[in-house]
Amino acid sequence: MPVVYRPGLPRYLQIAEILRSRFLGAAGGRIPPEHALCAEFRVSRPTVRQALDLLVEEGLLSRQPGRGTFTSPLPPLPSNLRVIGSVEDMIALGDETRFKLLDRATVRPPAPVAQALRLQPAERVARIAGLRLTDGAPFQHATVYLPEAIGHSLRDEDLAKTSVIGAVERTLGLTVKYLEQVVEAAVAPRAVAELLGVPRRTPLLHFRRTYFTEGGDPVEHALTYNVGQRYPYTVVLLRAGRKG
User: Which domain CATH number covers 158?
Assistant: First the structure.
């Protein structure tokens, strides 16, 4: 059956989407040669190569010189990760994984961070950067910004087995009431990709998350890059109770 392409989306992306679903979980198999894929999808060889290049960068395919292109085994999903969209689950993530501190400093915040934390122009922030790992493998790169006073209170805190926001609650006696979160697909900066051990230009999940107290005061703004295959992200939505 001929492929029906959606208008407005590059064909190589649509072909990659079809092949991704076709090969996912089929490790070690040789895929059809490029000329066969060109005939199947009715496109030129450069278009097919763009689609295959994307899947190679994602780690779904691997090229073996002289042999062809093969599907790659996917790493098993860590069973201990559970994020279902509540503040408690975000904090629990820090208890179930390990945090490797890379950098801790007091800096002038980028404008979006200052806006998220509602800071005055001259105010500074504490910045904490590191990798979150499970089974010894990194699945998340995090850069956390805190108002300077809050960051100062955590200067001696061991963050290896906790989340930063969990440490904020315990140390300062604050209670996080809600958070605002933006999730998008993004290509990580080169240094982040190297730290996560993924090829350059690999699409990652990029989170921008701000935590608020019951009074509506922001206490943390976090920017994270997550490896999708290593980070199962599930959202549970509940229907609000009806009145009357």
Answer: 3.40.1410.10
